[in-house]
Amino acid sequence: MIDFKALSETYGTPLYVYDFDAMRVQFESLKEAFKGRKSILAYAVKANSNLSVIKHFAQLGSGADCVSIGEVRRALMVGIPKYRILLSGVGKSDDEIREAIKADILYINVESEAELSRVEMIARELNAKARISIRVNPNIDPKTHPYISTGLHDNKFGVEIVAAKRMYIQAKNSNHLDPVGIHFHIGSQLTELEPIYEAAAIVSDLLRSLQAINIELKFFDIGGGLGVRYNDEITIQPYDYAQAILSALKGLDITIICEPGRFLTANAGYFLTKVLYEKRNGAKRFVIVDGAMNDLIRPSLYKAYHRIEALGKEGDEGPADVVGPVCESGDFLAKNYPLPAMEHNDLLVVHSAGAYGFGMGSNYNTRGRSAEIAVDGENIRLIRRRETFEDVIALEREYLEG
Ligand code: LLP
Q: 56 CA to middle of ligand 1, Å?
């Protein structure tokens, strides 16, 4: 059991706390599901990009799925081997493409015909052969929140099957491109297996039709997206997930690459925030806390549900909106959430905050970002210090003079 109270007293609030053992358990369970198959788990760094978190996965043998060259640098910095690093993303700059080719990472996931030509041009300049994979948009409805759905033609991601085929042929005929993989990712927080199976089946059909024209790929990249339980969702079990992918592949011998983010970190993370005040406006009850949308934006942005635990308190004073100090009506951590009577300095533990929590934070309202703590067995350590006012203004102050 993590002693949240002690942590909040030592490190202050708001505070992110990560349970490294829980991350390890998640990683091992997914690895186990693909046992006996050539596979790479490439942690989707965007879910939680703290260097110590990435290093933790590096030590478990993880690769890294990155969406900016900054994420690639993070992964390399903590020892993820270059041959397990991918660069994805719908809009890579020339500089990013250049650095990725020079760094000799496993491959670049290409998301448009224009981008393929760009990668080819840059590889030619460098006199290199760039390993690429193409992100296919299988036009499947993943049945998740529209903001995190990515596999429909309405979404900006990937290319249609026919375009993908053209691109593979172009790549195969190029001296500067080496097509090694095929990729899809239909969305995040997926709780239904059927769309994943359908997407995998569509993409593996394409894989077979490429084989028929002598384009042999080595990697089948199934993206991330495995959902987790925030409230009462029934989630997909890793074993069933792996079986669905394998059955879509129907015996094809190819290395599977999986890019899990949320599955590895969400439920291993907690956001601690202290109560400042309670108040009522008419019949409406508000619990005002020191954490805000700049720390954890998921409730405001997606109306996401995060379980909230009032530490050491009992009873139910009725539903309250848990709101932060930021000057926005959309600044809330929960709406109409049943809570006991709260007093100044009571501690709330916001659960499932380990993915897309800290990383989506900002300095809005000149709020310094929270500290982050790792709990690793008996070992508790700071993995990012709290930002000070000086940190927040550091890049501006030199321009004040004159
Ligand atoms: N691979 C690709 C190409 C992705 O776009 C993503 C997530 C992942 C892997 C990892 O997906 P995961 O396993 O974490 O579901 N901020 C949103 C989620 C955005 C996901 C973006 N892409 C949220 O807080 O729900």
A: 19
Q: Which helix (H) or strand (E) holds 274?
A: strand 269-281
Pocket of ligand 1 (CB under 6 A): 44, 47, 65, 88, 148, 150, 185, 188-189, 223-226, 259-263, 298, 302, 355-356
Helical H segments across 252-297, by residue range = 262-265
Give the model's pLDDT for residue 402: 65
270 alpha-carbon distance from chain centroid: 16
Domain ranges of the chain: 4-15+267-397, 34-260
Q: How confident is the model at residue 151 (pLDDT cuts 50, 70, 90)?
A: low
pLDDT for the residue 373 = 98
Write the pLDDT tens digit of every residue in 331-388. Answer: 999 999 999 999 999 999 999 999 999 999 999 999 999 999 999 999 999 999 999 9
pTM for the predicted model, two decimal places:
0.97
Ligand 1 centre distance from Cα of residue 44 (Å): 7
Range list of H helices, 173-319: 193-211, 238-249, 262-265, 298-302
- State the catalytic residues: 327
The answer to whether 4-15+267-397 and 34-260 have equal CATH topology is: no
User: Which residues pair with residue 332 across a beta bridge?
Assistant: 323
How far does CA 241 lie from the centroid of its chain? 18
- Residues contacting 179, CB < 8 A, separation 6+: 132, 133, 134, 168, 171, 172, 215, 217
Residue type at position 290 = D
Which class is domain 34-260?
Answer: alpha beta
CATH of region 4-15+267-397: 2.40.37.10
